[in-house]
């Protein structure tokens, strides 16, 4: 098969060894992932922007994360798709640097948002009386600023200053740079640094915070149960509600953590190990793991939004064009006391 890369630029490109059928299947699958990511996150962005009732500090954090994931779907994934299927990079060296930097920045920013959302949820569940005073719109703004700026400085600094291959220049020119490819490449120290910054630190914060939330929520539910057992008058259903809420919260947290770890852990572990294994991890495996990581951005709107009844109502209104009606932004999506 004639690789599309050969038609675009005359470079010594490793011809895609896959048959046309395999490539067509891969393109179809990746286009589906891209469209789902873009559509899902776009709906979250429109919902939170449009409905006045959703203008809460927490939701602006979710809105910002959806923006990151939306941009990843629009700006990064389509080019990664060509690289993954064709086994080469037909878009030139400068754009390779821009693409790699943007990829690292947006993937890291998405993970940063997840860890800040966990901190926000911690205060909401564990200190509800002081939550509004502690997590003000200013605090949320600072969280959003950190989530965008640190990954941007880190990613663009690393790639454009060539710090990512410090100490492994020969390997870099042989592996990542040669044969017209454009893969994310790290030498030992920068690899460990990237692993710590983009995955280990924000991931550990999430794990610790969700672990705390789970036990505090359990304790709260137990004390409500004990109190209601002492009263035992007409509180049977309240008991059920608290147990239900606790179960639902635990389930949501379990899914959030599970999806995050399943999606990103394999890629980051391979990235940090590769330089120590003399770059023996095959590029197709690395590529597959990057796509696994991207799936986190595909699932984020499903996890965070589809768990909330307000999101389902907003989705219906968007799909049926009801948001174009007069005063639709003032529509009540949920009862104020119970978002």
TrEMBL record:
Coiled coil: none annotated. Residues 40-304 form the G-protein coupled receptors family 1 profile domain. SMART domains: 7TM_GPCR_Srsx. The chain crosses the membrane at residues 26-48, 60-81, 104-123, 135-163, 192-211, 253-277, 289-311. Gene3D superfamilies: Rhodopsin 7-helix transmembrane proteins. PROSITE patterns: G_PROTEIN_RECEP_F1_1, G_PROTEIN_RECEP_F1_2. The keyword Endoplasmic reticulum applies. It is a multi-pass membrane protein. Keywords: Cell membrane, Disulfide bond, Endoplasmic reticulum, G-protein coupled receptor, Glycoprotein, Membrane, Receptor, Transducer, Transmembrane, Transmembrane helix. The keyword Protease does not apply. It is found in: Cell membrane; Endoplasmic reticulum membrane. InterPro entries: GPCR_Rhodpsn (IPR000276), GPCR_Rhodpsn_7TM (IPR017452), TAAR (IPR050569), TAAR1 (IPR009133), TAAR_fam (IPR009132). One of its GO terms (molecular function) is trace-amine receptor activity. One of its GO terms (cellular component) is endoplasmic reticulum membrane. It holds the Pfam family 7tm_1. It comes from the Eukaryota. Belongs to the G-protein coupled receptor 1 family. This is Trace amine-associated receptor 1. It comes from Myotis lucifugus (Little brown bat).
């Amino acid at each position: 098969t004639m690789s599309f890369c050969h038609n675009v630029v005359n470079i010594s490109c490793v011809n895609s060894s896959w048959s046309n059928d395999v490539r067509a299947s891969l393109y179809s699958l990746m286009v589906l992932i891209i469209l789902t990511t873009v559509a899902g996150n776009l709906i979250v962005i429109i919902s939170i922007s449009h409905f006045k009732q959703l203008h809460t500090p927490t939701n602006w954090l979710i809105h910002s994360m959806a923006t990151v994931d939306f941009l990843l779907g629009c700006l990064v994934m389509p080019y990664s798709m060509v690289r993954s299927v064709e086994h080469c990079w037909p878009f030139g060296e400068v754009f390779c640097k821009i693409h790699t930097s943007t990829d690292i920045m947006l993937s890291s920013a998405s993970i940063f948002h997840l860890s800040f959302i966990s901190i926000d949820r911690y205060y909401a569940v564990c200190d509800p009386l002081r939550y509004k005073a502690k997590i003000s719109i200013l605090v949320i703004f600072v969280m959003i600023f950190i989530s965008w700026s640190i990954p941007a400085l880190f990613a663009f600094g690393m790639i454009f200053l060539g710090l990512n291959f410090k100490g492994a220049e020969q390997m870099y020119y042989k592996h990542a740079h040669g044969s017209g490819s454009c893969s994310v490449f790290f030498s030992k120290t920068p690899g460990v640094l990237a692993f710590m910054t983009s995955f280990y630190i924000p991931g550990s914060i999430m794990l610790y915070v969700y672990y705390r939330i789970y036990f505090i929520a359990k304790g709260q539910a137990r004390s409500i149960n004990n109190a209601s057992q002492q009263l035992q008058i007409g509180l049977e259903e309240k008991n059920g509600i608290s147990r239900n809420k606790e179960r639902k919260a635990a389930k949501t947290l379990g899914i959030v953590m599970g999806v995050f770890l399943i999606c990103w852990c394999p890629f980051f572990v391979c990235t940090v190990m590769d330089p120590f294994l003399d770059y023996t991890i095959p590029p197709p495996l690395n590529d597959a793991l990057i796509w696994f990581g991207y799936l986190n951005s595909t699932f984020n709107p499903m996890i965070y939004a589809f768990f909330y009844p307000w999101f389902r109502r907003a989705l219906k209104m968007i799909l049926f064009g009801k948001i174009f009606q007069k005063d639709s932004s003032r529509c009540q999506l949920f009862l104020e006391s119970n978002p």
